[in-house]
From TrEMBL:
Key words of the record: Antiviral defense, Nucleotide-binding
Domain Cas10/Cmr2 second palm: 242-412
Protein name: Cas10/Cmr2 second palm domain-containing protein
GO molecular function: nucleotide binding
GO BP: defense response to virus
Gene3D superfamilies per the UniProt record, alphabetical: 3.30.70.270
Record bears the keyword Lyase: no
Short name of any one Pfam family annotated for the protein: Cas10-Cmr2_palm2
Domain of life, per lineage: Bacteria
Record carries keyword NADP: no
Alphabetical list of InterPro entries matching this protein: Cas10-Cmr2_palm2 (IPR054767), Rev_trsase/Diguanyl_cyclase (IPR043128)
Length: 551
């Protein structure tokens, strides 16, 4: 039985900053591809073959088993790629395996400076027991070494300023190209601007991504539809100009992977996660095209843009349990809900894995009440922002909103989604936004996060939110505006409003199933919370960011 082998643990650092540092959609998409390709393409197809090590006949994701456990002649194998990490197993007779691993990492990082300038990576090298007995401990030591290296080593991945240099108009780094000129190729979209090697590399990668997406989804797109390369073509109406950035992340994935007792289990879980996410986005894409062909967007979007074959949704990151896509502002909450509902129907953990996770939680956290879902569960953040808003800040907000949803899901592993709407040039963190917009004399004006997969007694389910939105749409515009204002005032103002607005009074009665209602009924305590909150401000804010809005 194989015990320990040489192992390389690779990591990409500050991925979000690298991918979303520019406000050009093409550049962001190309950057996402570069992050993925340094593992799946550069390392697998170029670096490892150059060392003449015997590898499995098939790609790591085409075979479920760890081949080293079955074939003693295999000298190198990719065990795992996912979540910004890669694990490579190495063994070679009469060779210093650790030194060989160092040479592999050195060749890889040197190539990254050319292929993906500006991208920071990390590495840890050691021995890994890939069978059951000491697997978790040896893998933990590798991750500790990786973290220690990240704290000590600050890689220099950019050409430094020397003498008189010009600054890139997009990244602020040293400009190295005019118009993005690379040998005999010119990227004309940069006009006469000076650009850095990083921006040129990202933008050049976009064409590869576009072709790959067409190939991957050709059975769905059918040469009839295409993904946008500019935010302006997402389909929002003139005068609205809002986009939604949706970030979705799997729940408790660190615990689920840490509970794996050997490398085989870890690989199986990784492959299953990627399969669920890719299948989920395909199903979401099918539903979007069904909407278009059923003319569901005629009142919500600019149909002329859709008639040009552009879809109102654009994937940026679809990898592992990490998903980021953009869409027209009105569609963000709807698409987030759909995707989460689709993937939550898929099983993630088999019976053995489920038992391992439960045992791990009891052992490490001494927690017997924490519930883990055997199906895929995830949380999402939806940042609805002006199309010209800095993309990186919008993504950061979406990530913070996803984190807010995850806090709600930790104990029961259910799927939640949270949202925020920004107007103008404001650029607060989520914490600042909550203080500025949601604190009121009578309570808190934001009711989220909203559960996507289970009914909630306190009506914090997303279906209850959408239902309330539809009811409020029947109220005259001026009354909706007044309701939004009085909920931010004292109780006396709310009492007076309710006395003079029977339409809202009837909605309140319907929601609470009560014959008589008072001003205090706008507020309620959520389960396990001590702060009074109202559902009505969220519903009002989303009226203009939902399908079939009357505006």
């Amino acid at each position: 039985m194989l015990n320990s082998v040489g192992a390389i643990l690779l990591d990409t650092r500050s991925i979000q900053k690298y991918v979303f540092s520019c406000n050009r959609l093409k550049t962001n998409i190309g950057a996402s591809y570069l992050v993925d390709s340094i593992f799946s393409d550069l390392m697998v197809n170029k670096i490892l073959p150059s060392f003449n090590l015997k590898m499995p006949e098939f790609s790591w994701n085409e075979v479920k088993n760890i081949q080293m456990l079955e074939d003693d002649s295999i000298e190198c194998e990719v065990a795992y790629i996912g979540g910004g990490n890669m694990i490579i197993l190495v063994r070679k007779q009469d060779t210093d395996t650790i030194e060989l691993c160092k040479q592999i990492v050195g060749s890889w990082t040197k190539e990254i400076l050319i292929k993906a300038p500006g991208l920071k990576t990390g590495a840890a090298i050691g021995e890994l027991n890939i069978d059951n007995e000491h697997f978790q401990k040896s893998l933990g030591l590798l991750y500790k070494q990786l973290k220690d290296n990240q704290n000590i080593i600050l890689p220099q991945v950019d050409v430094p300023y020397v003498g008189f240099t010009l600054e890139c108009d997009y990244s602020g780094k040293t400009a190295e190209y005019l118009k993005g000129r690379v040998k005999n190729n010119i990227i004309y979209e940069f006009d006469n601007r000076m650009v850095s090697a990083e921006i040129v590399a990202k933008s050049s990668a976009y064409n590869v991504v576009a072709e790959n997406l067409k190939e991957e989804y050709k059975d769905i797109l059918k040469n009839k539809y295409d993904f946008v390369s500019k935010f302006d073509n997402l389909g929002y109406k003139d005068g609205e100009s809002y986009v939604s950035i949706i970030h979705i992340d799997g729940n408790n994935m660190g615990i689920k992977f840490a509970s794996c007792t050997n490398m085989q289990e870890r690989k199986t879980l990784s492959l299953r996660t990627a399969e669920i996410v890719k299948k989920g986005f395909r199903e979401l894409l099918k539903s979007v095209i069904d909407d278009i062909e059923e003319n569901r967007y005629s009142k919500s979007l600019d149909i002329n843009k859709i008639k040009n074959k552009y879809l109102p949704i654009r994937p940026i990151i679809i990898g592992g349990d990490d998903v980021t896509f953009v869409c027209a502002g009105r569609l963000g909450m709807e698409y987030a809900k759909r995707f989460i509902q689709i993937v939550s129907k898929e099983y993630l953990l088999d019976e053995v894995q489920y038992i391992n996770v439960q045992n791990y939680i009891k052992k490490i956290f001494n927690n017997t009440s924490m519930r883990i879902n055997s199906n895929m569960s995830c949380c999402g953040g939806v940042a609805i922002v002006p199309a010209k808003y800095p993309f990186y800040r919008a993504y950061e907000l979406a990530e913070q909103l996803c984190g807010s949803a995850k806090k709600k899901s930790r104990q029961n592993d259910e799927s939640f989604v949270d949202f925020a709407i920004l107007h103008g040039d404001m650029s607060p963190t989520l914490e600042q936004l909550c203080i500025q917009q949601y604190e009121a004399p009578e309570g808190y004006l934001h009711y989220g996060p909203y559960c996507v997969t289970q009914e909630q007694k306190d009506k914090s389910n997303i279906s209850d939110l959408f239902s309330l939105i539809e009811k409020i749409k029947s109220v005259p515009n001026n009354k909706i505006k007044d309701l939004r204002n009085v909920l931010n005032e004292d109780n006396h103002s709310i009492v007076r409003f309710l006395e003079n607005c029977p339409e809202v009074e009837n909605i309140l009665k319907s929601e609470l199933q009560k014959e008589n209602v008072v001003a205090n009924d706008f507020w309620q305590y959520m389960t396990n919370e001590k702060m009074l909150k109202t559902r009505y401000v969220d519903a009002i804010e989303l009226i203009d960011f939902s399908l079939n809005s009357r505006l």
